[in-house]
Structures are given as structure tokens and as C-alpha cells.
Amino acid sequence: MGAVLGILVGLILYWRVLVGVVVNAIKATVAFIVFYLGVNITFFPIHSSGTSTLPRKYSDCPDEFLTYNSISSVGAIYSLLGFILFKLNLFVSLITFIPRLATQDLPNSIEKLSIYWTSHSNVVELYCNTHTGMCYPTYIS
Description:
Layout: H1 2-18, H2 25-51, H3 66-96, H4 115-118, E1 123-128, E2 135-139
Antiparallel strand pairs: 1-2
């Protein structure tokens, strides 16, 4: 689940570059915290029951580990809730379509000058439209 957290954070970070709209940062932080707590609440009791000599491959556990199982179930619900909040935040950003307006999004932004345009050997320079903020490559004829 740590890899999933990294993917979600990367998607939030690059959502404005990929789609061109801004995600609500407060809602994204709340979704991340809920998902993070849910993952930890899910897997820490499993780790604790493993150190208390419960084998991993048992489908039915003794009654002394029932509280661990209940806590893990609550953590899984928290993880699901955090993921739903995350997806809802992305969906709302697409519906409301708040355009990106920041100093990072100027026409000479590093994202527009990066590998996407410089990987072509015949690109001479970038033409940047100041009204739309979009940059277009100028090719060698």
C-alpha cells in the first residue's frame, strides 16, 4: 500500500500538468491522511498478531486475536473511504474546471521546456502563446 500512496501523491502533484485543472489541496490532504491512517490501522494489527504467534495462512483465528481482526477491518474501511475521497476530489476538479493560475504555470515553465519537447532533435525553439499559456515547438524545415 505504500506504493499506492506514492502513486496517489504523484497523481495529485501532476494533475494540473496532465489535465490542466487544479485539485483542491485541502481535500487532497484530507483524503491522503484518511487513506494513510487506514493503511496503517489495517496492517499494524496484522503485524502485531504475527508477532504474537498467529500464522499468516489461517482463515480462522483464535478468539484472542478477534480484536486485531476487528481493528484491521475498520482500517480497511478507512482506506476505502480515503480512496473514495481521493477519486471524488479528482472528479470534482474535472467538473468545476478551475484553470491553473500560478507563477509556476508561466509560458517558460520547466514542465513545458522539459523532455517532452527537447527529445526531438529537430525542435529549434518553443513558441508560447501568452493568452492561453500553451507552448508549441518550432521545427526545422
